[in-house]
Amino acid sequence: MSLRADDPARSLWSRTAAKLPTAPPLVGEARADVAIVGAGILGLSTALALAEAGIRVTVLEAETVGQGASGRNGGLVVPSLPRIGPAEVRDKLGGDKAARFLALVAGGGDALFALIRRHGIECDAVQSGWLNPAHAASLAPRVQARIAAWQAAGARCEWLDAPASRARLGSDAYHGALFDPSGGHLVPLAYTRGLARAAVSAGAVLHENTPVVGAEPNETGWTLRTPGGHVTAATIVQCTNATSPSGSSAFAKTLAAESVPLHVYQLATKPLPEPIRAAVLPGNEAFSDTRNNLLACRWTAGDRLVTGGMAAFHPGAMARLPGKLAARLEAIFPALGPVAFDYIWRGRAALTGDFLPRLISPAPGWLAVTACNGRGLVLNTVLGPVLADFLRTGDKSALPLPVTPPRPIRFRALAQWLPQLLLPLGDLQDRRAR
Ligand SMILES: Cc1cc2nc3c(=O)[nH]c(=O)nc-3n(C[C@H](O)[C@H](O)[C@H](O)COP(=O)(O)OP(=O)(O)OC[C@H]3O[C@@H](n4cnc5c(N)ncnc54)[C@H](O)[C@@H]3O)c2cc1C
């Protein structure tokens, strides 16, 4: 099979996730209390919570449900934050908001799996835990400190010493690990479609193939313009993350300006035989290590390993990526033998400068939110009900994050290339760590 990364239909998930009946595009005029733009995990979990509270909510999706990062990600359920820990969160948010935010993240794995059970979402969800092993001996104390900090914030994580982590990983390459039993993995496109189904069952109205091309205030709230019609709503919630097919509109740019896009590839191996499955991550946990250029993988129900990575910023880097990722897996898990991939696909994550979500209010009645940072499965799921409560009550003090005016990333045109440009440096640091 030849591997092409640009066609989302070639993702493993699009081949295996149960289909959703297509929602019709918007034609003519519609009214709602709240109109949500973007049918990813964030837009849909917010819509679900609003519909369950009896609010008239309409979701407008430019393409199809899960077309953005939500349907393309690795499916690792990680009840933690990327790069930053509780101390940085307290520094940024202050005591009260930080405590609420950390509790939301720490309890997020359990909340996500409970939601899946409550709505009977079929997405091969497995709450088998998340392993985050130290790739160098010098990093083990740092991981232990991180565990202590997260435990104090309410997380269920614990330290596995080197022999215990070796047994769980099926690899000699690590020096102990963080293990959080509330993590796990799922099929993200199936999960996102399941959220859409649950939101519609609860009363939300969904329109696919309906890009919002503009937003204008009116006497009672907002009008969202789409090619086939418009929606008026008292409040609009923009959940467009890093993806926007109508990227040149001022509406799309408002949220995009808060983050830089991160292009991440996902690859799925050929199905692997039982003895390999029993030797590598035999407990079926989600796995991502402490590298800057992190190595992550998880099993699928069909006995494939899904891994991922970024291509550096030089010619041919994309073509070499499958070989590079295969070599990494082979080195860490020798039981795999030679690794070959059947699928490769690409998604766009959104990175904020401080790895914290953004709740911005560009104008009264317009809330724009991004909580991706490459680890948004848990956070976007648990933020939905929190946003819904805020939209119902207007009580900012109960939010775990501040609502701010837009704060576009400075020199974004240059900054957007930084993650790729810095990748070789991260690789070098990873190789030098002892
Ligand atoms: C390759 C990859 C791997 C990842 N792996 C993991 C992982 O293993 N674990 C984890 O926790 N996180 C992971 N993430 C991050 C996670 O996928 C995201 O944080 C999360 O899906 C973001 O959800 P969202 O709803 O905010 O955005 P999205 O899912 O990107 O949804 C935004 C939606 O808005 C729509 N839209 C945009 N503009 C408009 C418009 N003008 N009108 C109407 N609709 C519009 C888009 O079509 C899209 O459907 C990964 C991300 C990527 C890209």
Give an account of the 3D structure:
This protein has 434 residues and is of the alpha/beta class. The chain has a domain at 19-73 and 189-260 and 357-417: FAD/NAD(P)-binding domain. The chain is built from 16 helices and 19 strands. The protein has helices at 12-16, 41-52, 69-72, 86-93, 95-106, 108-119, 140-152, 162-169, 188-201, 250-256, 274-279, 317-332, 376-393, 412-415, 418-421, 423-432, and strands at 28-37, 57-60, 76-77, 130-133, 158-160, 177-180, 184-185, 205-207, 214-217, 222-226, 229-238, 260-269, 286-288, 296-299, 305-309, 341-351, 358-363, 366-370, 403-404. Strands 1, 2, 8, 9, 10, 11, 17, 18 and 19 form a 9-stranded mixed β-sheet that branches. Strands 5-6-4-13-14-15-12-16 form an 8-stranded mixed β-sheet, with helices on both faces. α2 (41-52) packs parallel to α9 (188-201), α2 (41-52) runs parallel beside α13 and α4 (86-93) packs antiparallel against α5. It is globular, with a radius of gyration of 21 Å. It binds flavin-adenine dinucleotide (FAD).
